Every structure is written in C-alpha cells, then in structure tokens.
Amino acid sequence: MAIVEAERIVGRASSPAASRFKIDFVDDWSLAATGWIADAQETAFQHPLWFDIWYRAFSNASPLIAIVSDTTITRKVALVPLIRHMRHGVRIVEFADLNVTDYNAPILRAGVAFDMAEARAVSKALIAALRKVPGGVDLVRFRKMPGRLAGGINPLAVLGRDGSSSLNGNIIDVGEDFENYRASIKRIQMPRYWRVFNRHPGAAFRMIDSVDEALEVVDMMDAQQQRRMRNLGLNFVLNDETHGSFYRDLVRRGLTQGYVAVSTLSCDEGLVATMLGIRHGDYFAVLRISNAGERWSHCSPSKLVVERTMAALHAQGVRRFDFSVGNYAFKRRFGARPIPLTDASIAIGWRGIPYVLRDYTAQGLRRYPRLSQLVGRALGRPSREE
After folding, report:
1. If residue 339 lies in a helix (H) or strand (E), which one and from where to where?
2. Tell me, what's the pLDDT at 150?
3. Cβ atoms < 10 Å from Cβ of 79
4. What share of the chain is helix, strand, coil (3-state, %, to 5)?
5. What is the pairing mode between strands 139-145 and 90-95?
6. In what order do the strands lie in the sheet with 260-267?
7. Predicted local distance difference test score (pLDDT) of residue 212
8. How far apart are CA 143 and CA 40, in angstroms?
9. pLDDT at 177 (0 to 100)
10. Distance, CA of 345 to CA of 352 (rounded, Å)
11. Is 143:35 a contact under the CB 8 Å cutoff?
12. What per-residue confidence (pLDDT) applies to 370?
C-alpha cells in the first residue's frame, strides 16, 4: 500500500481558502474509507459500498484515492475515488467508473457543502497534488460530473463547463402523491398495459427480498440483455467475468442493507421483465432493465416493471427517481427532466495536450448539433437516434 502526501499550494493561493485544503493519496479503498459512513449525497453512486465493490471487481485498475482534508478543522471532508492507468503511452487519471458509475463526484462528509471559493480551492489543490504523484500523470479526465453536491458546489465540476458532457442525467421528482404522478403520465397507458399483462396466467409483479433469488434474477437479466444486444448487432459485456462479479457482489452485499433493489414481472411462462437499481434515502437510480423479447411488446413489460417498481419504492419513501444517463424517448415519457453534466480534461504533461485538444473540440462541436452530426457521419459514427 502506498500513501502520498501532497503539499498545500500556499504559493498558488489566490485566497485564504486556497491554502486550506490538503490532499493525501491512498491506493487502498478500505483504508481510505475507514470510518466513513454513507452520509447524505447527491446520488446513490457516491456511497462507500459502491466503491468498495467497484475496486474489488475492477482489480486491474490502479486505485488512486484522494483524501481531502480541511486544515482549519483538521478533518477529512471528502474522498475522490480515482484510478490511474496507461493508454497509448499516456498516463491518465480518471474516476473509478469504466462506464459503470453513472455520476462522478467526491464523496462528502456529512454537513460539508462547498461554496465557489472553496470549490475552486479544492480543485486547485487536487490538480497540484496530481502533478507531484510518483510515477507521473499526463492527463486528468473527469467525466459525467453533476454540478452540485449536498446543497453545495461539486468542487471538481468547476474545472469544466456546465453541460459540456455528451450525457445528461434524467431525474423524476415524484412528490408525495404517487397517484398524481400516475395521472401525469397517462399518455403511456400503463393501466391498459397492466390489464393486457394480467391476462397471462400467474401474472405478477414482485420486489425480491431474497439474495439467492435476486442472483437468479441477475442471471436471467444477463441472458435477456445479451439476446437483445445480439439482435441489435452490439457487443454485450455486462456478463463478462469482471462486470458479472461486480453486479452479483452488489446484489449480494447491497440487497439486505436496502441499498440495492431488484424487481420482476413474471407469469407462469417465466420472467418477463427485470429491473436492478440502487437506493439511498429518498433517491433511487435505475441501473439495468431487461425483458423477454419482442413477443411481449404488446404489454410493454419494461415500462411496466419500471412503473410498478416506482410505486413500490414510493411507498417506502423514495421521492426522486433517476433514470440514469443517456437520452431515450421512454425517459421523457415518464416525465424525466434532463440534468446537465460536466466533463473536464486537464493536461498535466505534454503527452496529455493532444487529448485535451480533442476533448474540447468535441465539446465545442456538441454546442452545434447539426455540425456535430455532419462530422459524425463523415467519421462513420451512428447518430444518437440510430
């Protein structure tokens, strides 16, 4: 295990706040998170259990966890779950994500909320500390960052432009009355789909509370999603050794804690639709949805399992439902509002400069959708609709 203490950037301080934060790096998540509890966070992804499972599953990634301390109160105030890896000879630092974590941000101590001056000081301290990491860093890439955390500013999002990510979040604030929400999405015709589904013998919706049964559901989820991806001509990786281990460990450890929710739509013929997500407080994020295929399209099982799961979790106190990143039409139909996310790329060494230029060129193009689409077609990339 390696621990690196980075000096405070007193010499670069632009305000008293800028010299206030100290960064330590640790390569062992269990050490970094010792004594850290799941405090109130902006999303359920900023949770110690999520990253404990993530670092165990993605063991080929090299952890580089930043511990942010406030020297004025001699207390740790944030953890930043990062990894370091090499790509084409470029040493890159990014979030512990690898397309699994939907939203990236520090995990904050309870009661911590940064104002703009503090946020800028934390981000400056972290970048300055990364410049001194043994072994070197060429490029820092922070992606899919929400702008706010726990009522304050996400200190790393200030490194980029709000809305610069190609992805966005999709949040539904249901409120206290679920029937009012149901009425607001009546155009989806969920009651009709439910009546059609109920014609099948043994039709039922269930929230799964047994770990063994939930693991069997994940097996079926893998099979159903792989079949769909194959039909679309796309590669499916969520059932490989690493991803498979991650999701099963998530279910195994998270279900009994109430952090993970698994639900199904089934009848005598078997599982028709499945859903997996994570919960923290009044917030729930959808991770994966699957269905048994085209022959069940007459009752729209994916929408049904979503709506029934929302109703069940609402009865348990959930009020905010996150349909994860990406723009799909069904999310709009459920009333999701888009949440802009931020990307930031910082060159630490000269090898990182071409990547930063490419990243910011892509961000600039996204501000002009028609031009971006023309460039994408010229490069042979499918459009978002495709």
Report:
1. strand 337-340
2. 75
3. 22
4. 40, 25, 35
5. parallel
6. 204-208, 260-267, 270-280, 283-291, 320-322, 168-173, 337-340
7. 98
8. 22
9. 97
10. 9
11. no
12. 55
Please, which residues have CB within 8 angstroms of residue 280's CB and are 6 or more apart in sequence? 38, 41, 43, 44, 47, 259
| b/e burial code for range 185-195 (CB count within 10 A of at least 16 → b) | eeebebeebbe
Instruction: Report the 10 Å Cβ neighbour count for 86.
Output: 11
Q: Which residues of the chain have pLDDT under 50?
A: 1-15, 371-372, 374-386
Residue for token pair 């990062």: 82
Which pTM was predicted? 0.88
Q: Indicate the SS3 state at residue 63.
A: strand
The token pair at 271 is: 């599982």
pLDDT tens-digit series, residues 95-140:
999 999 999 999 998 888 899 999 999 999 999 999 999 999 999 9
Three-class SS of residue 52?
Answer: helix
Tokens of 227: 């079949």
Tokens in use for 362? 């892509």
Residues present in the chain in total: 386
DSSP secondary structure of 99-168: T--SS--PEEPTT----HHHHHHHHHHHHHHHTT-TT--SEEEEEEE-SEETTEE-TTGGGS-TT-SS-E
Mention every residue, 6+ apart, whose C-beta is less than 8 A from residue 16.
Answer: none
